[in-house]
Amino acid sequence: MSLFVNGAHINLQEMSFLKDILIGSEAHFVVLIVQSSSIFSELFGYTACRQLSQMLISILFFHVSEYILALFIHGKSSVTLKSLLISKHYLVAMVCSLIEYLIELYFFPGLKEYWWISNFGLALVVLGEIIRKLAIVTAGVAFTHLIKVYHEEKHQLVTHGIYRYVRHPGYNGFFIWSIGTQIMLCNPISTIAFAVVVWKFFSGRIPYEEFFLKQFFGSDYEDYMRKVPSGIPFVR
Ligand SMILES: C[S@@+](CC[C@H](N)C(=O)[O-])C[C@H]1O[C@@H](n2cnc3c(N)ncnc32)[C@H](O)[C@@H]1O
């Protein structure tokens, strides 16, 4: 273990030498700082710095772009900070995944070195992001963050573009994106937990949303349902 201090590399053996030439509490203080910064630089080496910054950029990009698109599509008066889509449950999930990452990084650092897994996760993050944003742009005003329970004149059934392949590309994109973030961090527990929790959430939300869509668009929506899959595994 070595550390770059004031232009010089210092390793742990040299640290005890440093302790000898310094006096009393001053020596302990300096060695403590050197040791903890050494542990820090060891912990947050290239792997962690790259994976954590990819995670931060993915999260920032996802939420800021959701907000900006909502502003463009629905106008300033109908957009609140809720359009950032940051809920209490979501924050708890993200903090838990970060805790898992740090614990594994400390105890099983080798687990984070599977770059082909991490890069596959990054590819899923990008793919999920593209699918979701295509859905938002294609559906336009029909894509509201809150499920509509009353039919409005301007609300037309969307079955073109990405909606030709899946009925819920917005949810499909988020599903892929969220699991992708955890694969990117090489977090085995959170990968499974995110898949289960997000799947459960959408498997309840889709029938609720479609109950109203069937009321709004009748047989047109039922035909559409028959022909096009939901986009969430095992949800018809
Ligand atoms: C958060 S958006 C999600 C849209 C869609 N479930 C998706 O994943 O792309 C929810 C709103 O989209 C509307 N919606 C969902 N599918 C639609 C479609 N095919 N055409 C028009 N509106 C739709 C619903 O009425 C609801 O108010």
From TrEMBL:
Keyword Transferase on entry: yes
GO terms for MF: protein C-terminal S-isoprenylcysteine carboxyl O-methyltransferase activity
Keywords linked to the UniProt accession: Endoplasmic reticulum, Membrane, Methyltransferase, S-adenosyl-L-methionine, Transferase, Transmembrane, Transmembrane helix
Documented EC number(s): 2.1.1.100
UniProt topology in membrane: Multi-pass membrane protein
A single BP term in Gene Ontology: methylation
Cited InterPro entries: ICMT_MeTrfase, PPMT_MeTrfase
PANTHER family: PROTEIN-S ISOPRENYLCYSTEINE O-METHYLTRANSFERASE (PTHR12714), PROTEIN-S-ISOPRENYLCYSTEINE O-METHYLTRANSFERASE (PTHR12714:SF9)
Family designation: Belongs to the class VI-like SAM-binding methyltransferase superfamily. Isoprenylcysteine carboxyl methyltransferase family.
Name under which the protein is recorded: Protein-S-isoprenylcysteine O-methyltransferase
Gene field: LOC107821842
